[in-house]
Structures are given as C-alpha cells and as structure tokens.
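Appendix B. Extra example for self-study. Work through it before the problem class; the solution is given directly after the inputs so you can check yourself.
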Amino acid sequence: MRAGKAEASGEKSLPGAAAADAKPMRRIKVTLSYDGTDFHGWQIQPGLPTIQEAVERVVAEIEGAPVRVTGSGRTDAGVHALAQVAAFSLRNPIPTDNLRRAMNRLLPAEIRILAAEETAPEFHPMRDAIAKTYEYRIFRAEVCPPFERRYLHHYPYPLNVDRMAEAAPLFEGEHDFTSFAASDKSDELGRSKVRAIFSSSIECFADRIVYRVRGGGFLKHMVRNIAGTLIEAGKENLGVKELTVLLRGDAGVKAGPTVPPNGLFLIGVEY
Amino acid sequence: MRAGKAEASGEKSLPGAAAADAKPMRRIKVTLSYDGTDFHGWQIQPGLPTIQEAVERVVAEIEGAPVRVTGSGRTDAGVHALAQVAAFSLRNPIPTDNLRRAMNRLLPAEIRILAAEETAPEFHPMRDAIAKTYEYRIFRAEVCPPFERRYLHHYPYPLNVDRMAEAAPLFEGEHDFTSFAASDKSDELGRSKVRAIFSSSIECFADRIVYRVRGGGFLKHMVRNIAGTLIEAGKENLGVKELTVLLRGDAGVKAGPTVPPNGLFLIGVEY
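Solution. Structure tokens for the complete assembly:
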C-alpha cells in the first residue's frame, strides 16, 4: 500500500496518492544539478518557485498522480547544486534512463537530472546520507565577469588568504556550531547543534578563493556563516583565539556575517 | 562646439547636449563585456532594455547631460560580448579609471566596463574597426550544465565534426554573403553583401565545439547563419559543392538556419 510505505519512509502522503494499483512501487534515486538563482531554495513554499515543487510537478506528470520527492536536505534561496540527491516512489514502470530523459524534457533548463536509478525501497536521501560536501566560491578581482556573477561571491577587497587557509582546518572535528547557526526561529530549537566536519580547507586559483567543506551534516546557514567568518579572518578581524571561542558553542557569541547564497554550491552527497 | 563635433563624427546630437561649457570635450573609448541574455541586443529600441540604452543612461548620469554612446556594431538580442568597444564624448574631466569604476557602480552586473581610455577626438568605433572576432559555442552532451545554459547552443545530436572542420575554412576570403544575410528588411537593401573573412575554423574540446571567425565586417545574422550551415555540414546534409554554391551569392539560395543567439559571443574588435 502506498500510504503504508510513505509512513514507513517518514514521508507525508499526498492527497490522491493512495489510488490502488496492481503495479509494484519502485524507489527511485535521482542526482540533480541546479542553478538556484531564480528559485526560493529546495523546499516547497506556497506560491513561490522552488526546486522541490518543480521536480514534484514533473514526476507527478509522469506518474499521473501526486508524488512526494524528498531531498538530501534543503538548500536556501539562491544556492546552487552540482549534485543534489533526491528520491521518490513510483508505480510507473518506465526504465530509469527514459525517466531521466522525460524529466529533463519537462523541467526548466535551470534544473537537470544527471542520473536516475532504482534503489532500495527504504532508501531515504536525508537520513541515509553519511557526508555532504559544499563549496563557497569567492572572486577577488575588481571586475566580476558578467557570465559568472550568479555563481560567485564578488569580494574585491584586501584579504589575507594565508590567514583564511590557516583558519579553515580549525573547523574540522566535532564542534558545537551554535554560533554558526541561523538566528531565525526556523532552526530546530532545543536540538543539538553539534556537527562533525571531516575536512575544511581553502584553495586559491588566481583571483578565486574556494572554501570546501565536507561534513556529516550542516545547520541552516552554517556553511555561509563559516565562509563569512573565514572572510573576517582574511580581513584580520579575528584569529585562532577568537575562532576557538566561537567553536565552543556559547549561545551569546555570534560568528561572521552570513555571506550571499550565490557563491554556495552543494557539491555532492555520499551514502 | 559639441554640435559640430557630433556632426563631424557622424553622430546625431541629442536634445540638451549643446549646453555651452568651458571644459574641453574628451573622446572616451570603453571596452565592455556583457551577458546579452536579458537584453534586446545592443541598439536602443523604445521601451525595451538594450545594452546601448543602459550604457547611455549611466554616462548621462555621470556627465549630467545626454550623451550618445556609439558601439563597434550591433549585437542581436541574446548575443554576448567578451570585449565590445564603444565610444562617447564627455566634458566631465573625471580620470578614466574613476570613470570605469563609476560606470561599473551604476551599471547592472550583466554589463561590465573592462577598460576606459581617452582616445583621438575623431575615433569612431564602427568606422575605424579593422577586424572583429566572433565565437559560436555548441555543447553536444545529452545534459547541458544549468550554469552554462545561457552561454551555449545545446545540440545533443550526432555531428560529423570532421566535416564541420573541413567546411569552416571555405568561408575564408572575400565572398558575396547574400545567402547568409538576414532575410528581414532591416538589412541595408541594395548595399553590397561582399565581406572579407580573415579566418574561419572549428575547434573541439570534449563535448564542446567552438566556431571562431575573424573578419572585416559581418552582415546581420551572418555568423549565426554560417554556424547553422556548419551544423548542416556536420549533419552531412551539405558538402563542399553546396557550400561553394552558397558562397557565390545567388539571391535565390539560402544558407542553413539561423542558430540561437545564446551561443554567440563577440570576442573582440581590432583597430
């Protein structure tokens, strides 16, 4: 039964989704890339264009019934993905290669399905993820190329990149990221803000700085707040001592500013 | 006198531009890059966003009076420029480096002034150009990266690239490009359609095909019609014999289709 499966995988069932059908339910995992510039993030919001809504719409069109599409996590408004992972359950027996092609035909060019495969019925893209990697891309030259303005944070001011490169690995390990969590109420109140970061590093290529971070999970705005903090380190406004205090998780201490979403890319999700 | 200078350089004077002022008139040459996706081309059109209109608006704001900005040539709606050249006359004594910065502050991020310099009073970016280079970029893989969809012509169908590479140099030399001119009436009727092409070649990088052409001048839609014809050669719909007929300039013979503007870049203008 569709309703039972939806409950088992922690998804809300959608009205109309319980129609009895003899075809077996298949669990589909898709890898997708998107330009988040013109979307209000991953998660469905009434009346606003979101990635999840666009993907659910085309899967529903293929299935002929409403389908809940679950992502590995939310990305904020304006954030991009090189390889986000999502999953949904389908009765339509369409081969996965044809499904990928049909989805790309129906989706706007800003969202592309890179791969589609059949997976275990219990696969859950958020709960089963063991690591995620993000990149935050900063462009330092005075003039930002117009063709990349949507995909870079333009910061044409002095930065001590050595200080940033020194500071980045301090985030590795298990820390209480309270100081790096979004201050709005949408964040899970009362829940632990301890997260494990597996790697955290800065790379420079000419006028470009790329901050790359791989971790078990991230709080809302966490990567953008870390990137903003690393820029503060590059401005020599804070050093190792101040960063150590920030990583203690004292509720009263706030990290650097949340930098703009356009520089942020979800690079991949590991299972 | 402003009016006299404007006449001498073949520009129409603008209302209000003749205000007497003791400061000498300077001729400014700017090199600019733009993402043409959201513009209706270079040339001013009433009620539509164009590059020329956007640049004239910011120069007028800096000058405190209307200023005519002349380009090296029109680019069509949706066509991009890595390095377009334009010129205008200014009484404001602002240093050119500050002028460039002020223009970039006022312009939308889709248009960037890469360089500004003072030039000879008689400099005319269209009449003085000796060569222009364009690139037409084709992407062949099945899935077009969402971050490049505005800057590539996505053509995920079989192409014989060797045939295209063979055909491209046939355009070199002086030819009557009647078969490659836009068929609409906006093209200069009755004028010669003979143009000189200095180089014309195809390069391949993995899933990308780049057609690069350098010539003394181009008719409306000419590069896109050549690119469309090269794609027809790649589809093995026409060969050297048919191309030779097209390059004879018979009015009744039409070249391949005009391919979409998003793959086209004005790469540079030589003086």
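Self-check: The first helix of chain A runs from residue 2 to 8. If your reasoning did not lead you there, revisit section 3.
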